[in-house]
Specification:
about 290 residues; alpha+beta; 2 domains; two-stranded antiparallel ribbon; elongated; membrane; transmembrane helix
Length: about 290
Amino acid sequence: MPSAGTYGYVPEVSYLFGFPRAIIPGGVEMDLDAVATATSTDGKDKTAWKNFNFQMGALSSALEHAIPEQMFTTRENPGIAVSAVKALKIALSEGQRIYRINKANMAAALPNLHFSGETIDEIRQAVMAGKEVITHMDPIAIPGWKGAGYVITDPETGAGAWKIGGGLNGGLGPFGALLTGVAQGAAAAAMLIALGAAIATLGPLGALAAVLLITLVLLPILLIEIAYANTVFTSDAEQACLVIGRVTGSFLSVLIATVHSGSFAELVVEILGFIGMNILMEGDYDRVGECAP
């Protein structure tokens, strides 16, 4: 029966503050969107039919990594391709737990998955639609790629979508989240400092211009960057380091401005405020060791 898919070179896109910045060399990608089969139970129990459909999906997924490996790698130039089956196999060999997620256990299982926000959302939506999802806990990494393998199946038929989600390997992880948070926190505090200075020193028109510049231009850019960072850094450690970075960045920005103004009283208030913020963060600073490069 006719099937459909794509096979070609797919570059990676580098982003800065949530906006595309550059094209980075990627790799060959095979995506079979529709693999048509005709199967029948011959009036027998549907269990065998459902298992056969599932096995056909597993075979098709395995071929998605096996064929590129055979076509583009040699003993002299080895390489690794990835598919949903391959990702699950690698995760299992690493000792990761494999989940079969449905509506009954979704609330307990999803917090243990450390994938991108896009992948988590797709898994959640599939389960809410009555599907089951088989996946692992943490991203797996091969040279040039890091991501997740997951299978979205129909519990009635065994048919499903065998998918991978991820991108370039070599991300900065918690340390990258820390640096990103510092930049975001410093930028937010700098906006407030600049706004206060404009209101205090400029005339009404100057203050109005500063307010419009910050609220209509700079603030939306920062909010986009914050939202994008929240989708990139999804693990518990990355989220903690992101928060630590934001608080630290805002503290440093205000601290520099306070020292520059020469006010000792304001400096003391700033330090006390930083300590209070750490308390409100419920001990996230206890995890600062996880943010090391």
